[in-house]
Amino acid sequence: MFLNNKPNLTAIIKGNENNKNINGKATFYEISNKVLVIIEISGINTSEDICANKFHACHIHDGSDCKYANDKYINVNTHYNSFNCSHGAHNGDLASIYSNKGYSFSVNLYDKFSINDIRGKLIIIHKGSDDFKTNPSGASLEMIACGLIL
Fold first, then answer.
1. 138: β partners
2. pLDDT score of 25 more than 70
3. Rounded mean pLDDT of the chain?
């Protein structure tokens, strides 16, 4: 089975200065010209309020590093969007992740990018959910965590 193999790419995800409790990993496996993305995060949205929105937007950005200063990421650039599509159809628009009392685990298969397309890009987690229509980032609020895909 493919999960017994080493992933093609990995990103260590860390929260920014205001979200130091967030830690995780994204792994990327190439499977039949598609990419399986597995994201595991802890320390994200630990609210136990049953009515709270616990979805967090997740995107691949064209940036170069996760440098953070003055309450923002400096070099993340915009969503990976090789076809110049509207938000919701960007190559870098991933499925949202859901926090279960601070823990999130998701598995999704994508055909809109390859391993080579995303190598060296960033995976970004946002504070809020993604509406998949509002440009540029789906009204998903501030970026709270980042990882370099290598």
1. none
2. yes
3. 91
What is the C-alpha to C-alpha distance for residues 85 and 83, in angstroms, rounded to an integer? 5
17, with CB counted inside 10 A (0-12, 13-18, 19+), is: exposed
Cα dihedral 96, 97, 99, 105 in deg (nearest 10): 160
Across 17-36, average pLDDT: 96
8 A C-beta contact, residue 135 and residue 78 = no
| pLDDT on residue 1 | 56
| H helix intervals, 38-139 | 115-118
The predicted model gives 77-104 an average pLDDT of 91
Nearest partner of 66 among 125, 8, 107, 138, judged by Cα: 125
